[in-house]
């Protein structure tokens, strides 16, 4: 029976079998990747360069942009290279690195979104205590906790997944190395080693989700009690981008992992995984800048400065 040491590479699932379809897929991926790099890069530059944006909300947004860049850079470049060179192979070490960094960036982003929910809660429900509860040191500690939790998640899952003996070949039914697909290649009952890491992640994720829901219940109750229509509008404008980003992440992940097996198919799994792994990092900058006048003004200043000094 072959074990894990006999696997030197994995074969990823291709988006298309025909060469004439692979190049359009490469062009599509390249366009999405460049859009994500541009959007998140502009947010990073705007927040870093404009002192008006040196507030807790934009500090967390800067961290979110970094995590989005890392997340999409973990999966999409390899998919583009495979489509361009007409191959499916990824090395064993490359697959392990992809699992580690994807879990790290994805987990850290969800924990950071939980911290951002707390930021919105304090800003709307406890505005007089905002400065004391969300000082620079507290913000740095919360962001560091989100990143550290992501690292812990990544170490646990990568170590438990790649310590399994593999007996079902090396073909991964996904366009990147995804843990559930790798577990399908393990020997019978060997995946039980992953249970501890899975319980840890699910418990932490459910706790974060409950915290976000409770925070928004409190926020909406506080907003509805505001006497000023302008104040209500401003509060909703502050919360809607964050709520949209959380909803996009949660719904796509839940559909991916909780959908009935009767509607599961390799092509559907491919599309849904693309939605939760690639689309959010690309559209998050648009979501956050669409209704944010401060960020729009900072981006205009940045772009005008760049054009002026070309």
Topology:
Blueprint: E1 9-11, H1 19-49, H2 56-85, E2 89-91, H3 92-125, H4 130-133, H5 136-161, H6 179-183, H7 195-224, H8 229-258, H9 266-277, H10 279-290, H11 293-308
Antiparallel strand pairs: 1-2
Helix pairs in contact: 1-2, 1-10, 1-11, 2-3, 2-10, 3-5, 3-7, 3-8, 5-7, 8-9, 8-10
Structure description:
- It is found in: Cell membrane.
- Its main location: membrane.
- Belongs to the G-protein coupled receptor 1 family.
- One of its GO terms (molecular function) is olfactory receptor activity.
- Keywords: Cell membrane, G-protein coupled receptor, Membrane, Olfaction, Receptor, Sensory transduction, Transducer, Transmembrane, Transmembrane helix.
- With 310 residues, the protein is mainly alpha-helical.
- The chain has a single domain (4-308), classed as Rhopdopsin 7-helix transmembrane proteins (Up-down Bundle), CATH 1.20.1070.
- It contains eleven helices and two strands.
- A two-stranded antiparallel sheet has the order 1-2.
- Helix 8 (229-258) packs antiparallel against helix 9 (266-277).
- The longest helix has 34 residues, at 92-125.
- The protein is globular.
Number of domains: 1
What is the topology, as strand order, of the major beta sheet? 1-2
Strand-pairing-aware structural class: mainly alpha
Number of β-strand runs: 2
Q: First CA to last CA: what distance?
A: 62 Å
GO molecular function: G protein-coupled receptor activity; olfactory receptor activity
Function: Odorant receptor.
Pfam family, one: 7tm_4
InterPro entries: GPCR_Rhodpsn (IPR000276), GPCR_Rhodpsn_7TM (IPR017452), Olfact_rcpt (IPR000725), Olfactory_GPCR (IPR050516)
């Amino acid at each position: 029976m072959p074990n894990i040491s006999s696997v030197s590479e994995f074969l990823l699932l291709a988006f298309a079998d025909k060469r004439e379809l692979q190049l359009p897929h490469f062009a599509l991926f390249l366009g999405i990747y460049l859009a994500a790099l541009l959007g998140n890069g502009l947010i990073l530059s705007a927040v870093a360069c404009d002192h008006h944006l040196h507030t807790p909300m934009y500090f967390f947004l800067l961290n979110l942009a970094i995590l989005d860049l890392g997340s999409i850079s973990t999966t999409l470049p390899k998919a583009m290279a495979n489509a361009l060179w007409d191959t499916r192979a990824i090395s064993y070490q490359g697959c392990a690195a992809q699992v580690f960094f994807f879990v790290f960036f994805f987990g850290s982003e969800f924990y950071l979104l939980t911290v951002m929910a707390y930021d919105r809660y304090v800003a709307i429900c406890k505005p007089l205590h905002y400065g004391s509860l969300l000082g620079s040191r507290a913000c740095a500690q919360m962001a560091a906790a989100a990143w550290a939790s992501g690292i812990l998640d990544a170490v646990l899952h990568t170590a438990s997944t790649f310590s399994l003996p593999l007996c079902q070949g090396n073909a991964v039914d996904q366009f990147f190395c995804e843990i559930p697909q790798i577990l399908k290649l393990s020997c019978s009952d060997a995946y039980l080693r992953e249970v501890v890491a899975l319980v840890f992640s699910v418990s932490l994720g459910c706790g974060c989700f409950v915290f976000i829901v409770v925070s928004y219940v409190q926020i909406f109750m506080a907003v509805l009690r505001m006497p000023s229509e302008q104040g209500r509008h401003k509060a909703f404008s502050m919360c809607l981008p964050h709520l949209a980003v959380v909803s996009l992440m949660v719904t796509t992940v839940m559909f991916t992992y909780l959908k009935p097996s009767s509607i599961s198919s390799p092509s559907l799994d491919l599309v849904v995984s693309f939605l939760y792994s690639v689309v959010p990092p690309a559209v998050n900058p648009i979501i956050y800048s669409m209704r944010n006048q401060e960020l729009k003004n900072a981006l205009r200043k940045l772009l005008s400065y760049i054009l002026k000094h070309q």
